[in-house]
Design goal:
2 copies of one chain form a homodimer.
Chain A: H1 7-14, H2 18-25, H3 33-45, H4 52-59, E1 64-69, H5 75-90, E2 94-99, H6 104-118, E3 121-124, H7 128-133, H8 137-144, E4 149-152, E5 162-166, H9 168-181, E6 187-192, H10 197-212, E7 222-225, H11 231-239, E8 246-249, H12 252-264, E9 274-278, H13 282-286, E10 292-295, H14 298-314, E11 325-328, E12 331-333
Parallel strand pairs in A: 1-2, 1-3, 3-4, 4-5, 5-11, 6-7, 6-8, 8-9, 9-10
Antiparallel strand pairs in A: 10-12
Helix pairs in contact in A: 1-2, 2-3, 5-14, 9-10, 11-12
Chain B binds a DNA duplex (30 and 30 nucleotides) through helix 2 and helix 4.
DNA sequence: TAACCTTACGAAAACGTTTGCGTGTGGATA
DNA sequence: TATCCACACGCAAACGTTTTCGTAAGGTTA
């Protein structure tokens, strides 16, 4: 178990100074060709790799991007990460990922840990708990220390920074309009409680779409779910004996659960009830019937977020701060869960 | 945009030495109570946080675990990460995740990057390409530099290190046995090409189970898929006009795709054909009918892997090396895709 | 031969910590 | 008054780099 070899060791072995070794490896003209070759051969033999930690300390930058997401077991977020990695790798950045598990405390810990030396900037989607508590001091602090932050998807309006979002309201409107255009009249929505920003926005989009069609929204057609993991029973009793002809679900899980409940209640999708979901994940694609849904283009979000961040990281220091909010277009993916 | 505050700055402001500040913050008795309080108050005010990079350099350990997985958009792997994070957090370690995207080159790059300063040890499941190329020099090198590696799921037999696996063969046998015990006689298998270690092992388990039942395996009941992303057409023509009464699929995607194909071919699951999958992911749970499957207990794998790694990291230096292979039990989760 | 220029290398500082040890100050003791 | 001991603090090294600057040796020029 030989330890990693350092410049110092090479220098000692070759009986030259550390600086000579460093320069030789960088092909500096200061060093004679002879010495250069000798050093390089030796370094190769012993498989010398510069120590990143030392470099980071010296350069005061790490060339890595920290990504913090609410849950790692979530298809949408992983596609975003895919996008981030794509551009990060192109630009020579590494990506490290941490999950907050939707816990405020873990979000704070992870951010502080990464902020204290491991990453130059952050791409983050805040935890559910953080949105609920409305406590953003950790993010503000990170920014005030000069580390750029790009928020995506679950963003925070009050925070002044770059953001990448979709137009949740518009997406929801598109979804609802699609149902309306199919002739559906009794359209229910299964959504989250209001403190989840994207849930609320999508609910509003649904309401707007109905209004534009001169349909009065009905309270009993709106289900707001708090405990996502146990949504089945709630959805089941919500749908029980309800004469709806369409459902708009603000996420994939609600959509498939609704489909399953309907199936159990003996109703057919899309013949009796049409369903439109949100987020184009594996479930929507593989379900039978496959689900019509609103795609958020997660990868594109990741790409844009990474670009914004790297621009900030590599931008001039003294340029007046300017923050952008990029809005990614959603699109309706028509599949089998809505009738033609 | 005030910069991060360092010991040096605090020292300067308070007109004491750096060491005094450092000691004061650690409540050293060497420092007078008065000074300690003053320093701490100041540090708090300016929100001092020790620089991890500097600490890592000094201590020559980072207290972080590197996890490298083939794909991040994969439910099984994310559950493993969940397990790793659980024990890592308990023990004061951080977890950073990189994905190799099933690319050998990216695996090498990520490993080298993390190995050169960012992590103390690794938990890794190798890329498809790596299994194909049989080139493990990067992993061997990492280990020879004194950094422990724990392999999981897609492991490499030739490598001498800790491993956490399931008994893929046994799991497959259990799956097949279950079908046999239901009275199925014509059991097809949809599996991967042989160079994917787990695919091969599962195929072998299937064959063993048949043999134990004195059923001769039929070549035309075995489908080996190379291009996972386009499996639908292959599965479709494989199943076309085939009189099977059961299918064992070595992963979730194959299982649902088979179900979808059968559905299109007018066959009912489980009435006409029973299906057993492998990996208990979202798809299996939410599909209609929900899928009987072999659970790999990803979280448990992560937990065990993290424990093995941390044991090595915190163990005595001069203890003779000893490597364990932990085999996690799989279990059959009975759902609706196999008839009673 | 004195002055100068190249060439080839080394010393040292810096990044931010921690920590063993040295030391000045003041009070208590003999 | 000389000695000793706590006490409270500072110095400096170390971790592994990079890079600026200084400098010795040798050769060239006048």
């Amino acid at each position: 178990m030989k330890q990693k070899v350092t410049l110092k060791q090479i220098a000692k072995e070759l009986d030259v100074s550390i600086s000579t070794v460093s320069k030789a490896l960088k092909d500096s003209v200061e060093i004679s060709l002879d010495t250069r070759q000798k050093v390089k051969a030796f370094a190769k033999l012993y498989n010398y790799k510069p120590n990143n930690i030392a470099l980071s300390l010296k350069n005061r930058k790490t060339k890595t991007i920290g990504v913090i997401i609410p849950e790692i077991v979530h298809h949408f977020f992983t596609t975003v990460i895919g996008g981030v990695e794509k551009v990060a790798n192109e630009k020579g950045y590494n990506v490290i990922i941490c999950s907050s598990n939707n816990s405020f405390d873990k979000e704070v810990i992870n951010l502080e840990m990464l902020a204290s030396g491991s990453a130059d900037g952050f791409i983050l989607s805040v935890a559910k708990e953080t949105q609920q508590k409305k406590d953003y001091h950790h993010i503000e602090e990170t920014m005030s220390q000069g580390m750029p932050v790009v928020l995506f998807d679950r963003i925070i309006d009050e925070l002044v920074c770059d953001k990448v979002i979709i137009d949740d309201g518009k997406g929801a409107q598109t979804a609802t309009n699609h149902l309306l255009s199919l002739g559906c009249k009794k359209i229910a929505i299964i959504t989250t409680v209001d403190y989840i920003s994207v849930g609320k926005l999508r609910t509003n989009g649904y309401l707007r779409a109905l209004r534009a069609y001169d349909i009065t929204a009905r309270e009993d057609y709106i289900l707001k779910i708090e405990d996502i993991d146990n949504c089945e029973s709630e959805i089941s009793s919500f749908l029980k004996d309800k004469e709806v002809d369409a459902i708009f679900a603000v996420n994939e899980l609600f959509a498939v659960t609704a489909a399953r409940v309907l199936h159990e209640q003996g109703k057919k999708v899309p013949d009796d009830v049409s369903i439109v979901g949100f987020t184009d994940g594996i479930l929507s694609k593989h379900f039978i019937p496959s689900l019509t849904t609103i795609s958020q283009h997660g990868e594109e979000m990741g790409i844009r977020a990474a670009k914004l961040l790297i621009d900030k990281l590599e931008g001039e220091e003294d340029v007046p701060e300017e923050y952008k909010t990029v809005i990614i277009d959603t699109s309706l993916i028509q599949r089998q869960s809505t009738k033609k």
